[in-house]
Specification:
4 copies of one chain form a homotetramer.
Chain A (H helix, E strand, L loop, with lengths): L1 H20 L2 H8 L3 H7 L3 H25 L4 H29 L13 H27 L8 H17 L7 H17 L5
Helix pairs in contact in A: 1-2, 1-4, 1-5, 4-5, 4-6, 5-6, 5-7, 5-8, 6-7, 7-8
Chain D binds a DNA duplex (21 and 21 nucleotides) through helix 3.
Amino acid sequence: MKRQQILDAAYTVFSHKGYHRATVDEIIAMADTGKGTVYNYFASKEQLFYTLVKERSAKFETELNRLAGLDEVPLIKIKKVIKVFLEFYVANADLWRVLMHEMRGLGHEESTNFTAAQREKYRERFVHTIGVLETILQAGIEQGAIRPCDVHKAAHGLFSVIVMMVFQGFVDAQADSIEANANNIADIFLYGVVAR
Amino acid sequence: MKRQQILDAAYTVFSHKGYHRATVDEIIAMADTGKGTVYNYFASKEQLFYTLVKERSAKFETELNRLAGLDEVPLIKIKKVIKVFLEFYVANADLWRVLMHEMRGLGHEESTNFTAAQREKYRERFVHTIGVLETILQAGIEQGAIRPCDVHKAAHGLFSVIVMMVFQGFVDAQADSIEANANNIADIFLYGVVAR
Amino acid sequence: MKRQQILDAAYTVFSHKGYHRATVDEIIAMADTGKGTVYNYFASKEQLFYTLVKERSAKFETELNRLAGLDEVPLIKIKKVIKVFLEFYVANADLWRVLMHEMRGLGHEESTNFTAAQREKYRERFVHTIGVLETILQAGIEQGAIRPCDVHKAAHGLFSVIVMMVFQGFVDAQADSIEANANNIADIFLYGVVAR
Amino acid sequence: MKRQQILDAAYTVFSHKGYHRATVDEIIAMADTGKGTVYNYFASKEQLFYTLVKERSAKFETELNRLAGLDEVPLIKIKKVIKVFLEFYVANADLWRVLMHEMRGLGHEESTNFTAAQREKYRERFVHTIGVLETILQAGIEQGAIRPCDVHKAAHGLFSVIVMMVFQGFVDAQADSIEANANNIADIFLYGVVAR
DNA sequence: CATGAATGAGGATTCATTCAT
DNA sequence: AATGAATGAATCCTCATTCAT
């Protein structure tokens, strides 16, 4: 119970302050618990953050995998997957913004507070997530629905647009807002902006 | 002269360490100067960072404005502007990654180390930069080259893709890499991925 | 039973880590018991340590007293008592090293973690132990076997040599190693190093 | 100046409290300085302690080396060297008590707060110091003044007696107390306690 | 201008002890 | 009797900033 209180408080504080500026003191104040309690459940501030990310993304990853496995027309599948992404990132925008920053050190060892091992775990999650997009695009190409292109880059591009829409606050948590924006993104991604 | 040494050192350190983990001590060591000297030229660490960003982006903004003012076919203009963006972000990837993180709190007051006033200045730069994209798209729509869409969102989407390509290391500093990637991004943005 | 498990574990942990660095967590892990259980049997970490010392030294003190009471030629008695000391300290070297450190503040109130009352108890044990050596030396002087000297200092000197030999690892637990070293120490203590 | 104030305060606090219980806060309070200042001069609490030991022992080691090099009758030399030892340890008793404790982990890695590298430096000092005693004894044996014995053990024994006398408070800082005790120790070490 | 010694607020982490079950 | 979740006081260390020279 205390554990969940701490995770909830940590979510709020990390989301608002970022990793560095979040203090354990503030987390415990919000969780209404003692400082030692945090360290009973989590080995360190870093570990607490990692656990938070892992627990928050578990359902999303399951849903994503389920969707990827469906037998579905590629263009439909793309729309659906965009929607799933939007739903997840809208619900977790603030925390993922923080995570993505701490992950940025994909080349410089020294650029985050995280250990190399920890960062690698995060990276694998991202690689897998974007990998699902790649797989769907690749299937689309093979079925002739998508024209041949660099799926790796295209998947990253699509991913970045989704995330940006959320981070910029263009999408709110309403179901129809998500639906509309998913269609919007899919529309341009699939057909481009050129008039015909 | 000292001033420039400090800015150069600050660029390196901020780029590698991020804002938080960059220390004034490290900057002065690299700049081969005294700690007090930094505070003679810059009111604070934050101010130093801001100055750095401003000076680095000055030429880019000039170039961007020049380009926006040209009388040019919209589709060509879009390609050109993508290239200018790529050139700038490739050259400044590390520092802008840091900047964008510190900017992330576009809603939460407490989310960065920066003062509200400072953040507002940064935000205005971004708004203006993306605004150029919007203007170009809008002109394209009015000329019938681009189909009607939410230019605000579309501009943000395009911007996010450009930045993502750079941050993910898909684009290197070679002129032809930039050219190729610019064409690639433009191609999908303009025509979509659907086979025809 | 739990009580003994705790004492055994405490012995190992205190011996290896010293008083300060030994943690109750480590002790209970090794004792395979719960944290509360420790506090059922021992009022505090300090009390646990004290009990440990008391129980480990009980047999030694009995043996020492028995030996002191024997009717024996002084020089022989000295050799025997040295051997008994060596046997005890070899078997308990690590823990006594720790004890002696925590006792070091024989003048400064603030120098250990122990309460003044607790320290006084330890001190009495040492005083008594060394007192046995003094008594034996004094008897030797009275019988003319030992030349008059400050028995208090001499006893401390002899004690320090014995302890040092053990702490420096010059003596191992083998019976003959103990025998040989006891003879060695006795030889120099009794006859000096000068050639004749 | 601040540096010396800090060292002086550190000496007092370490001496009274031991390494572990000495707090940086207490040191700065006594040194009348800020916390950061300590860390400008010394990388860590451990480094501060090490520096303290090094500076305090420098003169002693020089004097010891000088004495060892003198061309002198062995028995006289032994008396002189005992006196030099007493002088040094009387002046630094409290700090060396602490040092010797932190050094105790000559077998167990985990037993002190000090890093292995740091401990090795301390150990070398001790080895060298006792080595001087060994050299002097060895010379005495070769000149026939001392009877053959294990000089390594004998040197350690002599060392331990000297240290014990000081730590037990048998020797005070008065020149004649030192002189008297040096003679006393030398007398028993050289000629033993047996009556003749 | 240039310097760097001095500062202290702030923050992560440890661990002995308590107490309800 | 046995347990272990909860606690918070205590402590080391960092680093932006100031100011006298």
